[in-house]
Amino acid sequence: MQKARSKNKTPGKSECRSKSISAQQTIPYIAMHPDGVCQLPGGVYTKTVEYEDINYSVASTEDQSAIFGGWSSFLNYFDATLPFQLSFINRRSHDRSRYKVNIPEAEDKFNSIRGEFTGMLKNQIAKSNNGIERAKYITFGLPAEGVAEARSRLERVEADVMGNFKRLGVPSEPIDGRRRLAVLHGQMHPGGREPFRFAWQDIPKTGMGTKDFMAISKSEKIQGEIDKVKAKIAEQQARLKELEQNKREVENSEIVEVVRGMSIPLDELAVLLQTLKGGTSGQSVPKPANKEDSE
């Protein structure tokens, strides 16, 4: 019976903690190399090329047909043995000056027109894509026995992909390992203002891996701990103020109870209250001398 109970025993806290994974373990790659070759699980290696857009909508009919045919040939270059992925990433630009529209008024009769035109421009800016940076990437991969074999094969594929882009009239360039990490860092920290601080020489100095730089930064961790401590201090200060207020109310009520049954001249009331507040409660309070006794 004891053995059966031990088998059905629920896992403790230590076992649950051992099963928890870190943020680094959720990033689905094994290694990132400086030249941009990324090793994935299953013996797959990938590279990424950044390219620009083609203004297809304003092209003529003949140019649109040529662009469509060239793009179809470009996609047909890839097959089941050469998987690829297109990534379109939009991020907010840090330049805020483009949102400022200010047409100064003049001493004439056209200020109303200037105001109307300024409002129209602001509405168009709000509806447009100003301030949004768009980046387009194509990532392709293939299986290989090792990074050396994968690197030579990926370089040939990279040359073919960039050649196809050139025939389409599309500028393109391969991105190295740091830029790939920076893109991944931006996706993992949406809306973050802290820049990506990483250099390959930092790995032997810090003993950290590339995934450690992807996770939450040390300054953000410290700021989170500071916020927790501040919240706890504010809660304790509020509790302390409440206790002090209760103490004053109790002291005042005790003083009122003591003074209520005593007949004390007004000129001696202040001295008595000061004596009671000074901590002499419980001691015998000297009775005020009667005028008949003094005489």
Report on the structure:
The chain is built from 11 helices and 6 strands. The protein starts with a helix and ends with a helix. α3 packs antiparallel against α5. The chain is 51% helix and 13% strand. Mean pLDDT is 77; it is low at 1-6, 280-285 and 288-295. It folds into 2 domains: 23-95 and 131-204, Alpha-Beta Plaits (2-Layer Sandwich); 217-276. Strands 1, 2, 3, 4, 5 and 6 form a 6-stranded antiparallel β-sheet that branches. It has helices at 2-7, 13-19, 61-76, 111-127, 147-168, 177-188, 202-206, 210-214, 218-260, 266-277, 291-294; strands at 31-32, 38-40, 44-51, 84-92, 132-143, 172-174. The longest helix is centred in the last third of the chain and has 43 residues, at 218-260. It is α+β, with helices and mostly antiparallel strands and 295 residues long.
Entry keywords:
2 domains, single chain, 51% helix, 295 residues, 6 strands, elongated, Alpha-Beta Plaits
Write a compact overview of the structure shown.
This protein is an alpha+beta fold and 295 residues long.
Helix content: 40-55%
Instruction: Tell me, briefly, the overall form.
Output: elongated
Number of helices: 11
Question: What is the alpha-carbon Rg in Å?
Answer: 38 Å
Structural class: alpha+beta
Q: What is the fold-level CATH name, i.e. the topology of the largest domain? A: Alpha-Beta Plaits
Topology:
Layout: H1 2-7, H2 13-19, E1 31-32, E2 38-40, E3 44-51, H3 61-76, E4 84-92, H4 111-127, E5 132-143, H5 147-168, E6 172-174, H6 177-188, H7 202-206, H8 210-214, H9 218-260, H10 266-277, H11 291-294
Antiparallel strand pairs: 1-2, 2-3, 3-5, 3-6, 4-5
Helix pairs in contact: 3-5
